[in-house]
Write a structure and sequence with these properties.
The structure is a homodimer. Chain A is of the alpha/beta class. Chain A is built from 14 helices and twelve strands. Chain A has two domains: about 280 residues, Amidase signature (AS) enzymes, CATH 3.90.1300; about 55 residues, no CATH class. In chain A, helix 2 runs antiparallel to helix 3, helix 5 runs parallel beside helix 6 and helix 9 packs antiparallel against helix 12.
């Protein structure tokens, strides 16, 4: 088994029940870590200590009385700063929204509060969850990017400042920073977690979870969905009230994805070791070399990044056009360029793009008849040096375009730096993916290289 | 042919091109009507005359130079006050949002501006586009409701204060007020017009158009969609750049819907006359008595109102819960009751409801193999007396639950009061419905009763 990150919340519940520990004490340990690390990591845009302490005290009373609101009652969490909160501004990594607040909570934040979770702070996002980085550094090496766009959420969880955090992904914004920062990262099936009150409007946008353990990850997601559902009209995440039992898969597909070409030798070696462990555990691994179905999927995955970029550009036309009207000087050049790209497109070309996406999704879905899940890397390498880019999303984008669930499992390290192994599932079978992931964690253990 | 409403914009284009009329003059005629009528009709929450005049002058120059931006360049329009505008507050019929502005335009409003339309003002909505009425009166009889929730949009268009307006519908909020106020009303297929920046989050929510003529209705919708698309991930309204040519249908279904029981004898007579005209024009009309497919659809339509209410209640859990947290005293009792109803529901019961909805939609879709469109009333009667209720949505809710396009055609009058004949189409075949509606208008003409 891998060593759990310091702030596993599920593992603290026994102490809360026995009285040996309390949510308030748990929060204070998080605050200690935040005070020690955040001045250099810069994961937060806002922290609400007074409200957090009051909420933790209320949670402590509930646990003492044996009436916690849920299995995440008292969990300290962070909220990516594109998701609205009533008590802290929502600034979206943009000067245009400096100090801005809508005055209310998003659906997910409200659900977290209902479940007793402690909203500690807002976490840094790239500008509008797109490209321009915020100030956050990688907690494992401050000269490196934490990844993006859920930069602060990944850094806060990966460093043990928090047990969990909300993120969003439309290209690689949960899986990539989770990989770089050593957090568990979960991008659900499309519509799995209600996006109401989150500024992520695109058709591939998902709200997801970054957390210290697989158990914490599931618990945050399921507690939200029980209270807020998925996106309107969608079934939302379906599964048991606690983490599904680990279930050994019979067959997995190893997907190189277009990322394999970009992967470093260390990263490839980490993946090869993971595959060797899985084979040793008796799991059959299909690859492009021995399976026509896998080869067909590999073929179409080459389209996922350029197609995603075209779809996202059109879907960003609004609100970027109204942001530009408001004050173009407060937008990055990248955002303005994206708008110009979008304005050169037509709705007809967009229709062709989403039709192609639907065809790609259908091809991938057929693979589900042959394998329990797919595995690949979460990123082509550990976090790169430099804060000017949030890294390469190439391994994360397939699940985004496909609309299927993905988990980044922090099982590998190259030197002191984490690298995620990614498990990708099938539409609306998120609970099955968690069950498979439980077995992968057991079978792979921890991989140390370099 | 029915007499067009006074503010038909399409019919003014010839004058703009020849120089006999200008968009600024057209706007001034609207303003004259607004100044004469709105003090008593109360259709607007905000009017931006200075900006409207400046925009109309710019449009006048473009027409003069022979370079209009679109066929709605210069059209004076109103925006339902749940849809965001950069230059006027968005108050959603709620004290909670008094004076509130997000600082930017919705996707549709931005598209209208790109097309040269003149955003004259914000129009009254019921509280959060739900039940509690605003102050608007029916322009044809001030003692009567204009219908809701797109109350101000319908009253402004029906009285000739504007050529067109945006509305939204999740139950009956476009079709019903269009019927009561004598406007054309169009609720598109699900996702047909981009809802970005509109506070209508529910899975049946649609943004739609109310206008003076069928031609204006189509033009507003298609100009928006060419610039902003449909909802992200949807194809959006597909069709020609100008109103599709009228096309005589071979077969229509007359649907009584659960509304027939509630319809007054005058309203029934209006429908019977319309059906007689259609038969006389050579169209075959199927009814529940002579078609098993129609009978099956009639059977399931009985479920549409209660099922819609259950789905909407769950989907209103957020944001109502965060509104209540903010200030419960600023919400109506009806809104708070709806939240309590929603909080007693589970996500599992919601899943059952949307599964049932999907089954109902599939049954309706099969009827599309036998008929070109369906016809029925838009409301069980003319606008009822009193402003405390916006009337019965029973005839409008089927298309809302089915997710299919619907048009209210202002073809009947009982005394001086309008009543709509409704045409209902099939998913994403909105252009076909407009083509059929063109023929229905010709065949039915105007019906005067009482």
């Amino acid at each position: 088994m891998t060593t759990p990150l310091p702030r596993s919340f599920a593992q603290a519940l026994g102490g809360f029940a026995s009285g040996a520990d309390t949510p308030r004490d748990f929060l204070e340990r998080c605050i200690e870590e935040i005070e020690a690390r955040d001045p250099e990591v810069k994961a937060f845009t806002a922290i609400s200590l007074e409200a957090a302490r009051a909420a933790a005290d209320a949670s402590t009373v509930r646990w003492h009385e044996g009436n916690p609101l849920s299995a995440i009652d008292g969990m300290p969490v962070g909220i990516k700063d594109v998701i609205e909160t009533s008590d802290m501004p929502t600034q979206m990594g943009s000067e245009l929204f400096e100090g801005w607040s809508p005055g209310y909570d998003s659906a997910s934040v409200h659900a977290l509060r209902e479940a007793g979770a402690i909203i500690v702070g807002k976490t840094v996002t790239t500008e509008f969850a797109a490209t321009r980085p915020g100030p956050t550094c990688n907690p494992h090496d401050l000269t490196r990017t934490p990844g993006g766009s859920s930069s602060g959420s990944a850094a806060a969880v990966g460093s043990g400042m928090l047990s969990g955090a909300l993120g969003t992904q439309v290209v690689g914004s949960i899986i990539r920073p989770s990989s770089y920062c050593g957090a568990y990262g979960y991008k659900p099936s499309l519509g799995g977690i209600n996006r109401g009150g989150s500024h992520d409007y695109m058709s591939q946008s998902c709200q997801g979870v970054l957390a210290a353990t697989l158990e914490d990850t599931w618990q945050i997601a399921i507690e939200i969905v029980q209270r807020a559902g998925g996106d309107p009209g969608q079934t939302g995440l379906i599964g048991p009230a606690v983490l599904p039992d680990a279930k050994m898969p019979e067959t997995l597909a190893f997907l190189e994805t277009p990322g394999w070409e970009a992967a470093t030798s260390h990263a490839r070696e980490a993946m090869e070791r993971a595959l060797a462990s899985l084979r040793k555990a008796g799991i059959k691994i299909l690859t492009r070399k021995d399976s026509a179905a896998v080869a067909e999927v590999e073929e179409i995955l080459g389209e996922t990044l350029p197609l995603t970029r075209k779809i996202n550009a059109w879907e960003s036309r609004w609100p970027l056009n109204t942001y530009v009207d408001r004050d173009v000087t407060k937008l990055s050049k990248g955002m303005v360029d994206r708008l110009h790209e979008a304005e050169a497109m037509t709705v007809d070309s967009y229709r062709e793009n989403i039709a192609r996406r639907a065809a790609i999704r259908a091809i991938y879905a057929r693979l589900g008849q042959q394998v329990d899940a797919c595995v690949t890397l979460s990123a082509p390498d550990v976090a790169p040096v430099g804060l000017e880019s949030t890294g390469n999303p190439v391994f994360a984008v397939p699940a985004s375009l496909l609309g299927v669930p993905a988990l980044s499992l922090p099982l590998a390290r190259i030197g002191a730096l984490p690298l995620g192994i990614q498990a990708i599932g099938f539409l609306d079978a998120d609970a099955d993916l968690f069950a498979t992931a439980g077995s992968l964690i057991e079978a792979i253990g921890s991989i140390q290289l370099g």
